[in-house]
Amino acid sequence: MSTSASDRAIITDSLGVGLATGAYGISFGALGTAAGLSVWQTCVMSLLMFTGASQFAFVGVVASGGSPITGAVTSVLLGGRNLFYGVSLARLLDVHGWRRPVTAQFVIDESTAMAVTRDSSHQARVAFYWTGISIFVLWNLFTFVGALAGTAIGDPRDFGLDAAVGAAFLALLWPRLDSALTRVVAIAGAAVALGLVPLTPAGIPIIVGGAVAVLVGLLLQRRSEGA
Amino acid sequence: MTTLWIGILLTAAGCYALKLAGLSVPDRVLDHPLTVRIATLIPVALLGALIAVQVLADGSALVLDARLAALGVAAVLLWWRMPFLVVVGVAAGSAALVRLWF
């Protein structure tokens, strides 16, 4: 398969996101063992769950003394956004047969965000798989390193990696802020999520903020069409 | 088996089921105009919420720290139409520098 220049640019960007996100596995690994999970349990989480925010939420609940079942509920609720990502991706990726259950594991924030902004189905697939698989490999590798080394390596925050994720999300959102509607929706999502942060368990603000913002968008669209 | 393992495996199964369910929504539903509208709004709404939480939340508290400074730097670079990796890399570097200095 020949690789065009635009594909190469997408692959470079995807690997960059893969590295920045995957490296964060170190902090998950360290937090996991600090919360009382074994190295083995921490690594199984990264392999089988493979959705960072849910993994952090589970470990966060367990670390703060909550039961693993409460952790599971919070974590699965937070994973609910992957359902919506799948809906956005289904057409673009158009996967059937054995490929679908395999592809499903790579449906996460970053792979979706990198894919849905593309012009063609081909580019979306290139972005999705390069981002998803590079994160999967690095995330699992770094989880293992972090779980073994604990906090000895240093906090990823010292390298600003926590800020890198916010910047990456903003870069992905940026080209979509081309209309008043999308700007209002993005701000509504951010505002509702922030309002809920002090009030609800981790994960809920993102889901509810996202849902309210979508409703706001639908209502605004209806009103502008009715006028 | 400990409750910890049960919690981990339940979560893994639940998270995977959600991912697969999203990809398996039938064409009939995908083609519906409402689904199309919602599907285009979801990334914007979720990214807005994700950025806010990623940058301002620390557990259940809202804090202003190096992450917000880095987001400001990222916004300026995006305004200047800098490439993706430059935006992400410089934002990370600025957060690291802010933490080093303060």
TrEMBL record, chain A:
Its main location: membrane. It comes from the Bacteria. It holds the Pfam family AzlC. The chain crosses the membrane at residues 15-37, 127-153, 203-220. InterPro entries: Brnchd-chn_aa_trnsp_permease (IPR011606). It is found in: Cell membrane. The keyword Cell membrane applies. Keywords: Cell membrane, Membrane, Transmembrane, Transmembrane helix, Transport. It is a multi-pass membrane protein. GO terms for cellular component: plasma membrane. GO terms for biological process: L-valine transmembrane transport. Belongs to the AzlC family. This is Branched-chain amino acid ABC transporter permease.
UniProtKB/TrEMBL annotation, chain B:
This is AzlD domain-containing protein. It comes from the Bacteria. Keywords: Membrane, Transmembrane, Transmembrane helix. It comes from Aeromicrobium camelliae. The lineage of its organism: Bacteria, Bacillati, Actinomycetota, Actinomycetes, Propionibacteriales. The chain crosses the membrane at residues 41-64, 76-101. InterPro entries: Brnchd-chn_aa_trnsp_AzlD.
